Fold this protein.
Amino acid sequence: MTEVLRRYGPVLTGIILLAVAVWLLLLVILPQLLMVDFSFRPSLPPSKLGGPEDVYTVKNYATLWTNQIHLAIFLKTIWASSLVTAVTLVVCYPVAFYLAQVAPRRRLPTLMLMLVIPFWINELLRTFAWYIILAFNGPLNALLVALGIFSEPQRLLGGDAGVVIGMVYVYILFMVFPIMNAMESLDRNQIEAARDLGAGWMRIHRRVVIPHAKPGIAVGCIMTFMLAAGSYAVPALLGGPQSRWFTEVIYNWFFEGGNWNQGAAYAFILLILCIGFILLMMRLFRVGLTDIAK
Amino acid sequence: MTAASFRRWATGAYLVVFFGYLFLPLGIMAAATFNSSRFPTVTPWTGFTLGWFSALWADQRMWQALGTSLLVGAGVIAVAVPLGLAAALLLDRLHSRARTFLYAVMVSPLLTPGVIVGISTLVFWRQWFGVTGGLFLTIVAQSSFIAAYAMLLFLARLQRFDQTLEEAALDLGATHGQVFRRITLPYLTPAILSAAFLAFLQSFENYNTTLFVRGLDTTLTVYIASKVRTGLTPAVNALSLILIALTVLGAVTYEILRRREERRRQEPA
């Protein structure tokens, strides 16, 4: 702290501390704490606030257990997000490895640009692209019928399958970049040495590349899972009433059910789920928080 | 075919499929803009038209949503960039446990689902200040996590900063204000520009957070989503195509500038 003061002087230090306090307290910490506090209170009309009924309760959390439909949607959100994470990981791993270790240097700038461009394009627009592809009269149905895989067009939109397909597409780049960054620091000589010592490529990946890339894989999985579980745009566009996502249930509590306390409880459950997933990944890949938050 | 050449061939094929997968959907969406069919599609192709651009041009609500998006974007730049800068300046001079803790708190909004950022902002501001959803809350909610992106950009640049420059200026009698204005700030200018650019892009495309705090205001991204669900015509594709073209232009410019900057850094001064 003395170093900060010495470097910036009292006035500038004051401004910096004030700005950081405003950001972290007013925009990050207090809203989160209040949301949690709010979620443990009953939904009351304004006249009863602060009255005898305004006491802490776990009723809003119990709703998730008693409402079978919401519970099923919650569990579906968990496994579908895990599926999205697993599929993106499998698809991205070879690409990340190629870009980090195999690609010739002169080709890298172009390849990187080709990754960066879709990454920058609005998530909603990338989802919309799949809305057109998956439409009943869309190109995918036309192709599959032409190839004889379907005898007639199928409903691809409005179900869980469409949502998962869309999510894999939209969040795939959040998996590529962290893994690639982690693999880049692996010395190519280590792979050469393993090969010279007679290791096959499976063994090289299992014993050399994957252990080295673990922090990147963990970050990629965390980001993808968090984005998938917390996604509203993709299920809203590609899903339907039969394939509701947990975020849509939360939204309905706020803007259709008009029960904000209940919605806050569900939001907190979603947050716990994401934190739980982060802890699981840290345990699974044996990486610390400092490896992740780099 | 030897094993090695087969592996090379398979890798090449995989990459072609992967990049095709990334770009083909965008191409199909763009192509549907020029199809005269009432519903955006490429199958069947009913004839070439540019009419959906003029339909878009005439859409008053689109212009209104665009105005809202620009306003929110400007607001987010004004809030998130200074906050991110202050946070990076502070972190850069801390070396203790406090730094690790502060850093974790600062990046936590990036690991929080966007809907939760929106919900917590909405609940907090209504309960404490009686502020309901609208432009102000949209700017506040978006800034809470976009400031973290800005902070990371500034921190990366500060790590390469030669601190002896500041020390020399202070030794020669410059005030702290002078050092900041004449040395620190000019050094950070490229990072300020990229942070502003990224902040605007993040704000412009945000959907999950905005949805909860927008009140009765509609940003362009929210407007597109509502059009897809009710009243979809290829005018939405025309809008998407324009936005994608602008994004590609922005991304390419940003990359070129970033690489030029990187090269300059690698060359000995």
